[in-house]
Amino acid sequence: FPSASAHHFLATTPAGAPLVLPATTGPHFASSSSSQDSVYQQCKEDLAFAVKWMKPVDQLPGGRAPRAAAYTLLSEVYISMKNYDEAIKAASAVIDNPNFRLMTERFGVLKNFTFNGYTYQGAAEPWGDVYWDLFVEGNFNWKTGNHEAIWNAEFDVSAKGGGGLDISSNGGDFNLERNWGGPLKWLAKDKNGVVDWLQDTLSGRPVGFLFGTEYSNTTIWKYKGDWDRDIRNSKYNIQREYYWTNPSSAFYGQLLAADNMGDPSSLYAMTTPSFKKAVSAVHHGLFTDATSGKKHDNGHIYKDWYIMRLPDTYLLRAEAYYLKGNPEKAAEDINAIRNRVHATPVGAGDVNLDLILDERARELFMEDFRFNTLMRMGKLVEYLMKYNPVVIKNGWQLDDHLNKFPIPNSEIEANTGSKLEQNPGY
């Protein structure tokens, strides 16, 4: 299974990378370029072995890849090989497995969580929904009752080597909250020069390294008028309003706005949407903010993270159904996901690859290997030109060769015993 997973990325992204079999035990300098088809064929053979011998999810501890992970990857490989019947069969082996189901009711350790809102004022109220529950620390494992969890990476702040302070004095290895948890609003200054401060929950310690695009932040949520219906876009799952939380500010409890900020030009950077799946609802409190005195985790999270989740399998099967020419069945699979989040169902006439990609973004943002997905579909260049703000701003016309990564020149030069062919266009 690990071999198939690695070869799958090699086949899809650089395409033409060498297939070296059997595995080498020493330096190897005579690799030859392999066709994409030959690498996919090897993936298929490896996964045929894996689905026969890997254990089912109910016989494994958390963090171990179950047989369902191999079936899910096999479905994607078969799509790449244009064998849609086998792709449907592989995905169905997971979707029809009674061990797996989409979670539709509140569950887990914080299903009764209360919070006083992003103003951090007033009485606490019930907080969250079933989609929010999917990303709560303690809820990621199948063993703990999350029956759409197929395979996830494990983190444990209390275990040596588990991603805690023994790994990094800065607060652990998994920096998702720091990088993706939202904007740097806790260091914003109001028009009187009073700095906002860090709170202890649902704000994290983001530094605004990465912002979503208009596509991920806005465009995909307007589909079928579902802005206020789709719970994935609820205030629990995406924060779009930010408040002054320092009582010393004259604007305490008010929205951050251009007319009360010291630097109005920084408003977007301070208030860009924050996807709460990247934030820990309750921190371990390993650090203390110097200004507010609030405990925090320095922008690091210690919850697990999904590698595969059941909606991915549904959307792979939907893609296979669509490419086979059965948009009705594709719509059924897409609606299984949309019904869970109260979104408007789609019809067969709505289904195309763009809808599937949009639904992957709505459901699997920050989980999907998006580069790999776009390259596999041959849509990377198209989507960069349609949605990437840097490309749009500069008016760049990108060539189709960018749908594949280059073979690293260092690998070509080191391969002295044979010739590795560079991908076209590089």
The Cα radius of gyration reads 23 Å
Low-pLDDT runs? none
Which oligomeric form is depicted?
Answer: single chain
The portion of residues assigned to helices is 25-40%
Through-space gap between termini: 31 Å
Number of helices: 15
Q: What integer is the average pLDDT? A: 93
How many beta-strand elements? 8
Structural commentary:
With 426 residues, the protein is mainly alpha-helical. It has 15 helices and 8 strands. The strands form 4 sheets. A two-stranded antiparallel ribbon has the order 1-2. It is globular and about 70 Å long. It starts with a helix and ends in a 12-residue tail after the last helix.
List the helices and strands and how they pair.
Blueprint: H1 2-12, H2 36-53, H3 67-80, H4 84-95, E1 114-115, E2 125-126, H5 130-133, E3 149-153, H6 176-180, H7 214-217, E4 238-239, H8 267-271, E5 274-275, E6 287-288, E7 295-296, E8 305-309, H9 310-324, H10 327-340, H11 353-364, H12 370-377, H13 380-387, H14 389-394, H15 409-414
